[in-house]
Structures are given as structure tokens and as C-alpha cells.
Amino acid sequence: MEDIKLIFSRADKNNTGTLDLKDFREVVDHICERYPQVQLYLQKQKLKNFDSLLKNAQENETKQIDIETFKQCLSEVDSQMKSLPPTAQVAAQQGEYLADCFNRMEDCDKNPEGPLRTRESGRHRFHPFRYKHFGQFAPLGGEQTAAQLPGDWISIGYSTQWLWYSVYASKQVSWRTRCMVVSDWFRRYIFGRDSSGI
């Protein structure tokens, strides 16, 4: 919402104070890339493009969109925005993103690849970070686990526990730690948990 006037003025090339859909289509891809919550909102509302969002925000049938209508539809998008969860999955993806940015910093200084800047001319150096949710596991005790995976696939039971074991082991940083973790699981499975210190 802080950049709304700048976005509107960039789309309004003729300085008419209103936008038609043709004007807006020229900046919509950059807006969706710069502000991921717009794209998520469109998917959630099952709207195919930003034109539909703007049409839904209009009370009349005119094809012109003034800044108040523009503010209304983008404030609705902002109200739906949520922060990313503070989980290891998010942190790992952010770390990979940052490492990639640092490795390509010189190239991207010369050839920026991100969306158009709203406060300055030119483009941002990098594409914004996009989080991809790969699912989550929750241990239930008694060697059972619940899992929620992409595509709204949910599983509960012993087989899900073994799926969790395989994912956990694959995320270890080295083969040495993988072998240590797996051997600990086998020892616990054969001899049970050591509860003497409890």
C-alpha cells in the first residue's frame, strides 16, 4: 500500500488519473512478481488474472479504474497477507535463495533480472524470494506420525513414520550424521528408549 501511488502513476502513462485494462496489463506481471501476496490472492479467489480482481472491485460498469478503486482492491489483497512460518523449511529455502543471490551478484549488477522498481527507474537485481511449501510432519507418539503434503494429501500411521524417517535422514548435512542418526533409530527400536535418566 505504501507504493500504491507510484504503481498507479507508472501504469497511468497518459496522466489521465484513471487506468484502462490495457494500461494496467503492462505493469501487472511486475506487480505480481514484486508482491507475491497478489498472486496468492488471485489463486485463492480463483481469479485468472488481475483484470478480474479489478472488475470485482468496481461498483459500476465503466472500463476506467480510478485510484480509489485501485486502492480498494489492493488493500483487500494486503489484508489477506500472512507472514511466513518460522520453520526450518522456510529458513533452508531462504538460505539457498541468499546463497544463489550472493553467487550471482556481479552478473545481476550488470544485468538486473527482477521486476521493475517502483521508487526508482530500472529493475531490481534479483527476483524476489518465493517460498514453496513441501508439507509438514507431526509425531503422534507410539511410532506414529501425521503428515500433510502438497496437494492436500494427509496420512497418519506407521508408514508415515517411516516416510518421516527417510525425509529427516535425507536432510542431514553429511553421510556421517545420516549413519549416526539411522543407527540411533535402530538401537532404540531393538533396545527401547533409555529412560534411566528420567
From TrEMBL:
Keywords from the named record: Calcium, FAD, Flavoprotein, NAD, Oxidoreductase
Pfam short name (any one): NDH2_C
EC assignment: 1.6.5.9
Principal EC category: oxidoreductase
GO molecular function: calcium ion binding; NADH dehydrogenase (quinone) (non-electrogenic) activity
PROSITE patterns linked: EF_HAND_1, EF_HAND_2
GO cellular component, one term: mitochondrion
Entry superkingdom: Eukaryota
Catalytic activity: a ubiquinone + NADH + H(+) = a ubiquinol + NAD(+); a quinone + NADH + H(+) = a quinol + NAD(+)
Residue span(s) of domain EF-hand: 1-34
Cofactor(s), by name: FAD
Keyword Calcium appears in the UniProt entry: yes
UniProt entry tagged with the keyword Transmembrane helix: no
Protein family per UniProt: Belongs to the NADH dehydrogenase family.
Protein name: NADH:ubiquinone reductase (non-electrogenic)
Organism: Turnera subulata
Gene: NDB4_3
